[in-house]
Design goal:
With 108 residues, this protein is mainly alpha-helical. It has two domains: 12-64; 71-108. It is built from five helices and no strands. The protein has helices spanning 4-10, 13-16, 25-29, 34-64, 73-107.
Length: 108
């Protein structure tokens, strides 16, 4: 009696795959097998979702950085770097003020 594995080995991929009528004729002409066509579709969906994620993140960044709503991505990144540097300078100044006030109050 044949085992399940030996029976499956007799079947080729075309029998196990989706019916050929579900594959467009243009895809058959390009030489795409069912598995290849499915992989291509999945890759397109994945790339599309990645692009929408990037667009969403860029929109969010434009909202966070002042006066950047109408900039291109390259200029937006430059402005973001400059804005972060300016914020870091502000923090250093504020820390200096806090330290000066803390040591000044100890003298009293």
């Amino acid at each position: 009696m044949a085992t399940a594995n030996s029976l499956l080995s007799l079947l080729d991929d075309s029998v196990l795959a989706a019916p050929s009528w579900r594959i467009r004729s243009s895809q058959r002409r390009r030489g795409g097998s069912v598995a290849v066509v499915r992989m291509r579709r999945a890759e397109r969906r994945r790339r599309g979702s990645q692009r929408s994620d990037v667009r969403r993140k860029v929109r969010t960044l434009k909202k966070l950085i002042p006066n950047c709503e109408s900039m291109g991505v390259e200029r937006l990144f430059q402005e973001t770097a400059e804005y972060i540097a300016a914020l870091q300078r502000r923090v250093k100044v504020m820390q200096t003020v806090v330290d000066a006030l803390a040591t000044g109050s100890d003298d009293e």
